[in-house]
Recover the amino acids of this structure.
């Protein structure tokens, strides 16, 4: 089975799919090693890694390349944040083609206008429902069975919970495999959304946002199928790097930090360093044999 089928099977099984945000191949390998069965490539995490704001200004080629770099190193299904689809309906079809080729298992597109905003910020604007439906029809036409299409709606902050549900129902009819209601503001809203939807749902459990902190088990009990933690690891990394650099500047040595650092061996084990050395040794041995035989 392909990665999309793997994810589809998980959604149809017992338990919730927990997908941490990853933003590089090495972080993806750490998440896979930790036992997560799906991963999430966050648009916010990726743009912030590039020191850019989460306003949809990264390009399709950048996202596709980063996706390919991650999927080349892990076998865990990857859900990719495709923002607004990088354009209109025809552009969305191209986005699906590129992310399928890059090895994604699923992508999600949202119903904001550009420049889009983080789902938990004020001032969001939405495209017409018909425009989003057109994008979803285009996406599904290209996706086939090889990629799941997740429809995100940011309507809660603009049109209220009823408007968000109405849009989600339209997106479901358009063929979305999963609905992603962004920035719901209470447990009751999540429950209400689940009552009205017949297809899988994805929840976003980000930090410092409008959604109250809830565990994966709580989302599972409400009937949600996927929960993402999009930038938790990124924020942890940035805070640790900041504190490390400040301490290094102050003390002029890393001696007091060595115990909190990943060792060379730990990182080499993560990336399977010995495999590369063994491959090089085999190539060298083969070259010597060939050269010896030619004499």
């Amino acid at each position: 089975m392909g990665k999309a089928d793997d994810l589809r099977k998980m959604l149809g099984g017992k338990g919730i799919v927990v997908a941490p945000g990853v933003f590089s191949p090495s972080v993806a390998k750490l998440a896979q090693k930790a036992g997560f069965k799906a991963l999430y490539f966050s648009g916010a995490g990726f743009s912030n890694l590039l020191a850019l704001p989460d306003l949809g200004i990264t390009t399709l080629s950048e996202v596709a390349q980063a996706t390919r770099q991650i999927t080349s190193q892990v076998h865990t299904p990857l859900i990719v944040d495709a923002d607004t689809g990088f354009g209109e309906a025809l552009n969305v079809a191209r986005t699906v083609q590129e992310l399928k080729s890059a090895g994604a298992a699923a992508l999600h597109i949202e119903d904001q206008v550009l420049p889009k905003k983080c789902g938990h910020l004020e001032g969001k604007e939405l495209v017409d429902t018909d425009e989003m439906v057109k994008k979803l029809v285009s996406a599904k036409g290209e996706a086939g069975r090889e990629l799941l299409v997740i429809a995100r709606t940011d309507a809660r902050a603009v049109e209220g919970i009823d408007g968000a549900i109405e849009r989600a129902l339209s997106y479901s009819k358009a063929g979305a495999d999963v609905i992603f209601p962004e920035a719901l503001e209470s447990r009751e809203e999540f429950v209400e959304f689940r009552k009205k939807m017949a297809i899988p749902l994805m929840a976003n459990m980000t930090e410092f946002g409008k959604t109250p902190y809830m565990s994966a088990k709580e989302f599972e009990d409400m009937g949600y199928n996927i929960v993402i933690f999009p930038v938790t690891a990124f924020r942890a990394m940035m805070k640790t790097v900041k504190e490390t650099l400040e301490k290094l500047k102050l003390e002029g040595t890393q001696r007091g930090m060595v115990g909190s650092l990943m060792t060379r061996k730990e990182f080499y084990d993560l990336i399977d360093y010995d495999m590369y050395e063994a491959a090089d040794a085999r190539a060298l041995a083969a070259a010597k044999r060939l050269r010896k035989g030619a004499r």
